[in-house]
Amino acid sequence: MKSLPGPVERLIDHFAKLPGIGPKSAARIVFQLVHAPAEYVSDFADSLVSIKRDIAFCRECHNITDQGTDTCAVCSNPSRDHSEILVVEDILDLFAFERTGSYKGIYHVLGGLISPVEGIGPEQLNIGTLVARVKRLVSDSTVELVIATNPNLEGEATGMYLKEELEGIAGVSITRLARGLPSGADLDYADSTTLERALSGRSGF
Amino acid sequence: MKSLPGPVERLIDHFAKLPGIGPKSAARIVFQLVHAPAEYVSDFADSLVSIKRDIAFCRECHNITDQGTDTCAVCSNPSRDHSEILVVEDILDLFAFERTGSYKGIYHVLGGLISPVEGIGPEQLNIGTLVARVKRLVSDSTVELVIATNPNLEGEATGMYLKEELEGIAGVSITRLARGLPSGADLDYADSTTLERALSGRSGF
């Protein structure tokens, strides 16, 4: 933008790089912040710094946790079922399940999906720690591993890889999320793969 | 969100309060920042603080300018036409005109519109400084004041108020932005007020 002061331009650039924010919304945000109280803006800035300073990653599942704690709120909760591990791509997926309030097991965050196109191999994901963790847990009880990667090409490939790596371990059962019609869906608009899955996976009524 | 570390929740709240960002996009942004390099995040935070620390408002037109300068890049530019003042609601509007690259006059930022519903009267806007500025400028030459408020109820009312306040000053002519069809419009979809304005304001071809 012409004749914008440097600090304004720099902040617009920062906001415009965030997911889902274009240059126009970034400018709108920054011009609002220009008029916001100084304390509000410095509190926002402090909040940003705190995300790196006060956050750590869970040693067990790689979820985020408070700095200074080894394990996250889920892993350190004895009332969660530690024999059921939901394997998700990232922390956003973990919190999507936490919001349902009905999952009582624990998680493992892969930190991505296997993607030859983007040069991401299994060794860059948190798979080694998952294998070690499962081996440790099966000494106490059987373990169910629920593969909860997205139902797309990369999610499927990663799920297949995990199945091959882990199914040999005694005491481990591997399942994956049900496929079918989403709640509130319109049969008319559902794609044929979804319809096929819904039909082949039909259950008693 | 359940079991989210405090700093994460606080930053999500901050982002969710910004215009155009909902709680879901805020979470997506924050989880991306959690994984971003610490220098990147601290640079972002510094950028935020700088918006209050390094920015001032132009004494003449109330546009933003670098801290330590009295007047903005437009007002301090001698090659701009200082006898033509475009009166806009806010800085975003000013930069919308600057982006066209074709306006050569100067601006005056009102800082809002008269709105009895929201309790905003003329005395809360930068109208006093506009009147004083126009009186100063007319001693040198005639001045054209282009009312460029949005074509809605509040914009119209504010424009009318400005006209009444300023038309008595000798040497001042008051104009407003043309009304008509926007470029690329479809006649079929234009509302009848726009069509009436386009017809009554028709010009030679």
UniProtKB/TrEMBL annotation, chains A, B:
<dbReference type="Pfam" id="PF21176">
    <property type="entry name" value="RecR_HhH"/>
</dbReference>
<dbReference type="Pfam" id="PF21175">
    <property type="entry name" value="RecR_C"/>
</dbReference>
<dbReference type="InterPro" id="IPR034137">
    <property type="entry name" value="TOPRIM_RecR"/>
</dbReference>
<dbReference type="GO" id="GO:0006310">
    <property type="term" value="P:DNA recombination"/>
</dbReference>
<dbReference type="Pfam" id="PF13662">
    <property type="entry name" value="Toprim_4"/>
</dbReference>
<comment type="function">
    <text>May play a role in DNA repair. It seems to be involved in an RecBC-independent recombinational process of DNA repair. It may act with RecF and RecO.</text>
</comment>
<dbReference type="GO" id="GO:0008270">
    <property type="term" value="F:zinc ion binding"/>
</dbReference>
<protein>
    <recommendedName>
        <fullName>Recombination protein RecR</fullName>
    </recommendedName>
</protein>
<keyword id="KW-0227">DNA damage</keyword>
<dbReference type="InterPro" id="IPR000093">
    <property type="entry name" value="DNA_Rcmb_RecR"/>
</dbReference>
<feature type="domain" description="Toprim">
    <location>
        <begin position="83"/>
        <end position="182"/>
    </location>
</feature>
<dbReference type="GO" id="GO:0006281">
    <property type="term" value="P:DNA repair"/>
</dbReference>
<keyword id="KW-0234">DNA repair</keyword>
<dbReference type="GO" id="GO:0003677">
    <property type="term" value="F:DNA binding"/>
</dbReference>
<keyword id="KW-0479">Metal-binding</keyword>
<dbReference type="InterPro" id="IPR023627">
    <property type="entry name" value="Rcmb_RecR"/>
</dbReference>
<comment type="similarity">
    <text>Belongs to the RecR family.</text>
</comment>
<keyword id="KW-0233">DNA recombination</keyword>
<keyword id="KW-0863">Zinc-finger</keyword>
<keyword id="KW-0862">Zinc</keyword>
<dbReference type="InterPro" id="IPR006171">
    <property type="entry name" value="TOPRIM_dom"/>
</dbReference>
